[in-house]
Amino acid sequence: MRMHMNWTRLLAVCIVCVATVAFAGMLAAQDQPGSQQTTKVHRTKHRSAPSVDARLEHLSKQLNLTDDEKEKIRPLLQDEMTKVQAVRSNSSLSESQQHRRIAMIRKKTRTSIGEILTPDQKQHWEQMQAERRSHNGGHHGNPTGSGSGSGGPGSAPPPNN
Fold this sequence. Notes:
mainly alpha, 71% helix
């Protein structure tokens, strides 16, 4: 009976050791830079973008938008947000493909917003974009000049009109 208890304890210790080694191996595989899981986590790790309302409020304060201008700009910002989220959730795209598509979406939004603004507002907006470009060293920001720092007022030259 005593020998049976010793074998049972030995078996339990062996099972715990094997489980520990297997768990440690899984953790080590997740930490490898080329592993699929690490890449997926990296690709989905984006700073949270400001809401459409927050972006619109920022533009409104900076450019003194009228209610009519806000009504025209809101759907543009909503459409951009929806399209950007769709691109980011598309796991079949490489990271560089995602960046290019998002840049095109944001450029289109900036162009559309520019068409709504008065000449004075547009001039001020272009100055905001230029300041953001110089502040970010050319990195992308969002079209309102606030928030996540990816796709903003300075991510591309102002639209030519």
